[in-house]
DNA sequence: CTAATTGCAAATTGTTTGCAGTTTA
DNA sequence: TAAACTGCAAACAATTTGCAATTAG
């Protein structure tokens, strides 16, 4: 779905800034920091401000258009949320590649938790490591 | 194990600040922010500085004495690392209670990832919700 | 005694806010 | 044209740093 449609669907005003941010996220299969996004967007929209990027990532997040990833090492990363249901991430520590994972561990333990009187509302499951490409050839970056 | 032994075992100098920080973590079963820890430690060690707390949390982390939790909602939380092997956390969003979980989802998919050429190095699995106590009675805090 | 550690103050980073002008629906 | 959105500059919170004095081994 293109940027404009995504925005309209969520009843958000269609601005050039929002379209640009979404396009950046659409044109990559890696997770990006707010800074990454800003420095990409500014190429096509030289006037844009950092606060606009932050504000829009927040609204996109609240509307479920993007999702947020917070690696143990710190920092906050974003990616476009896939429309096809709940899933988790496998993320390459070298190139940032984000691979969706269908498997969800909650199914296996939901019942057990409820038994103990704990009511789960959210969970996160993320896997970090090296993707096929980065495994093999060459130098590693370790950006996070 | 008492604070002093923990430090000696990791070949760290035993200072009153480090002992105090570890004791705070030992005397709770909830996850704590750096700020929480600081305001607790300062009660017994009035002169301690925030930077000392941060620096020491870093060394304790690197030595595996504490572990770090970063909820999706932001912020960084710490708790004493349990000695008994790998485990994950179930955390109450109301009172911060941290319940260890023996179950680890990696076993179930490790092989599948390797097949795809992905080499996992780390992972995280955290569950958030409400513990038995908070489920029932009373007002909720939602501190994170 | 020497290297590690601490307190202090200042710097830095990442993010958020108020406001006045601009744009979208 | 009203409400939403943006740029700007300033504020902010959390964390880090350099340095001189202190302390543990």
Structural overview:
Two copies of one chain form a homodimer. Chain A is α+β, with helices and mostly antiparallel strands. The first copy, chain A, folds into two domains: 1-82, Arc Repressor Mutant, subunit A (Orthogonal Bundle), CATH 1.10.10; 85-144, 2-Layer Sandwich (Dna Ligase, domain 1). The first copy, chain A, contains six helices and six strands, in the order H-H-E-H-H-E-E-E-E-H-E-H. Chain A has helices at residues 3-9, 16-26, 34-44, 50-62, 106-115, 132-135, and strands spanning 32-33, 66-69, 77-80, 88-92, 98-101, 119-130. In chain A, the strands form two sheets. A three-stranded antiparallel beta sheet of chain A has the order 1-3-2. In chain A, helix 2 packs across helix 3 (34-44) and helix 3 (34-44) crosses helix 4 (50-62). The radius of gyration of chain A is 17 Å and the shape is globular. At the A-B interface, helix 5 and strand 6 of A face helix 5 and strand 6 of B. Strand 6 of chain A pairs antiparallel with strand 6 of chain B. The first copy, chain A, binds a DNA duplex (25 and 25 nucleotides) through residues 12-15, 17-18, 34-35, 47-52, 54-56, 75-76.
């Amino acid at each position: 779905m293109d940027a404009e449609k995504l925005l309209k669907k969520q009843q958000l005003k269609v601005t050039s800034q929002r379209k640009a941010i979404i396009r950046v996220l659409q044109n990559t299969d890696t997770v990006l920091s707010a800074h990454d996004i800003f420095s990409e967007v500014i190429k096509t929209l030289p006037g844009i401000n950092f606060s606009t990027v932050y504000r829009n990532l927040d609204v996109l997040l609240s509307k479920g258009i993007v999702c947020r990833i917070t690696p143990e090492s710190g920092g906050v990363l974003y990616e476009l949320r896939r429309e096809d249901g709940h899933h988790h991430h496998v993320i390459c520590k070298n190139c940032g590649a984000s691979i969706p994972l269908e498997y969800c561990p909650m199914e296996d333990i939901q019942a057990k938790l409820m038994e103990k009187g704990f009511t789960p509302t959210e969970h996160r499951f993320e896997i970090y490591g090296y993707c096929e490409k980065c495994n093999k050839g060459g130098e590693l970056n370790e950006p996070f």
